[in-house]
């Protein structure tokens, strides 16, 4: 059950709900978004070529068809599909209130593991009471409305904005039972029939209603990084975040009771020995962002474990100083940095961490603007974009489609905190590690700081700095550009504006669509998803013993 002020009701009660928009609202929305993508969207050439799409033409046709829609939600679903086909979780339409405060959910969370080389889907959390006492944590779900669940996930993945196949599958699995309605289409069904194998080995079926959790006013955002009075400051212009995933991460904590898992990793016998976890002090200021502990093996060897849930921080220097305190407490034998599911945040926060775990100079990820006329004007009028202006002014001579690239981070963010940790480091990723987290992991890979253990072969492949429509409007006004119309009925839009280019052996390659690559793949076990990732951590400890890549 929702625990923090959410209202809860059945989804079917919303079937007559609609958003209030006129035909002119619909037409102006489609036309305005077409202009926004044409002038500011940094990945537009890449997406048109790689995805074989034409969003400019689609939005033009949608504007022409605007008077024909009798239901505004159908129009918004069509509009959202244009953005989904970009395969870019940064560039997204955010639907109006109250949809942007709603999470549609079934009262179960499903996570995958591997048994005998076969990927299986297990129930790992249950919200409240369900009408079948055999539906327990640990049962295997086999079918969804009669469709084999693996086939359903593959088909559903094409309805997600994942940048590559691994991200699409990860998002589809995550969205089976949890959907942020500000960013995703409402479920088609009022209820779902799950087929599962009980812990007694019986094949059973249960029908579960889709429910809605409605956050209180002001509770549907993602930390205010892309909104607020300071949205046109330099730091606010350096955000890399998948807001939809951050909302779902919050929903997981708020809607579902904590799973029945041990508070520590209990000692266990086995070929690799056992682990005991003990929390570290000193991270009180980061309690919603990190979890820090030491892992001790049966033979007495100790390692550090740092779980990073988000980089959404308003003060990069403050974040770096607190992280330095945590890192200095870590055992010197090795450190595991776990960024699974981290949707990003403030890009310089992720990049500052790189400097704190090595004594080597870091070659930074560089960022470029598209060479459009509005961005050329903006870069000449706003001081903290002036580094990009010279190359944008040269586009008629060079014929280049992008500006020169520069890093976003400032050495003041981490000065005096370099090399706060000196031991070997392993980073753990999955395909939900995104945006600022992509920057962090790519920097780790490009500078050859250690091994990357991947539950998927790559990170989520979000390689950009994202701005909200309000930020773009603010910068445009500051640069003397024509005003950018606001979207009706409280809608908003986020657009990837600066593109990340890799460093080191990957120098010049885009991060978008490719992501950072694991040096070793890991397949989670039943013990991992039902416990506290004991086998995964053992694998990470073993990887710490390997020479660096």
UniProtKB/TrEMBL annotation:
One Pfam match: Peptidase_S41
Gene3D superfamilies annotated for this entry? 2-enoyl-CoA Hydratase, Chain A, domain 1, 2.30.42.10
Residue ranges annotated for the Tail specific protease domain, each copy included: 303-465
GO molecular-function annotation terms?
endopeptidase activity; serine-type peptidase activity
Any one GO biological process: proteolysis
Q: What is this protein called?
A: Tail specific protease domain-containing protein
Q: What is the lineage of its organism?
A: Bacteria, Pseudomonadati, Pseudomonadota, Alphaproteobacteria, Rhodobacterales
